[in-house]
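Worked example

This section walks through a single chain of length 353. The input is the sequence exactly as stored; nothing has been trimmed or padded.
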Amino acid sequence: MTSRTSQPGLKVKIGQMLLVGFRGFEIGDDHPLARDLAEGKLGGVILYDEEMADTTLRGRNIQSRAQVKALVESLQRRSLSPLLVAIDQEGGRVNRLKPAYGFTATLSHEELGTINQPNETFAHAERTALTLRDLGINLNLAPVVDLAAGADNPIISGKGRSFSADPEIVARHAMEFARAHRRHGIMTCAKHFPGHGSARGDSHLGAVDVSPHWTERELIPFQRLIQAGLCDAIMTAHVFNAQLDPERPATLSRPVLHGLLRGRLGFDGVIVSDDMEMKAIASEYGLEEAVRLGIEAGLDVLLFGNNQNFDPHIGAKAAAIIFDLVAAGKLEESRIDESFRRVQELKHKFNLT
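Given that input, the structure is written out below as tokens.
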């Protein structure tokens, strides 16, 4: 496997901004990803166990420990440059590596927060990190640092995904989660900025407005992680928050990402979007508009889970949109360079370049 070149072309730099889902328990020469991997035009992939776009299909990327390990090895072998291989392995209900596939059962953030023993959270997260390391998965899209700010929140509190309603408790457990992963060379991604815990709806299904309920307390866990140097990446929330931006949801908001996260909180690491195909974005914006606004706002990596509406060529389509926006002068290449730098610095930090 070759490392990144000293003078990568624009298409390669754009590819590093994409994290894409795909179908298949293995990758063959005729797989839609094969060419992009070989040409270095894809920065990362995300693995799922369940197929959501077509429920007649049995599974997605995960069947067994040996199969996942072979799949990841094949992806890396085919890729011109080292890939981010991501998964949502929070624990509890958001758990892709399930006992049904031969993996150890996990506790949710809520269960760990109820125990409220940071050393137990560290030990539990370390077991997860060791599993990921053995499989070759290098990025866990966790911990969730949203507060349990509303019992009627269907996607955070409703699924046991928050450590606590207390931001300091959330921060304490999130730091142990991140430390345990880092000990074993696994990147983490705190989510969902600037806070999804006060939502009363699910952004998978449509627009969600947190304006009446959100408070600055929801920023505290992010602040603590950044101050402790434990934020490898931060994932955005697709929530609309008029307190912060009266026009656009956080994922597409320059005031939220550039002004608040980069400026006020001082984060210069990788900002990853939540899935750009979730309806809070996809039903409100066209693909080209969403891509342009997201990059203008400050996104470094655009996540296309490709599991709500499947398109085998979504990565190539998104890359072409970004390339054309630069060619038309609607995005500056220097903006692409900024994200490319951050992604490469993160990969280098974890010995992936």
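What to look for: Residues 118-135 form the longest helix (18 residues).
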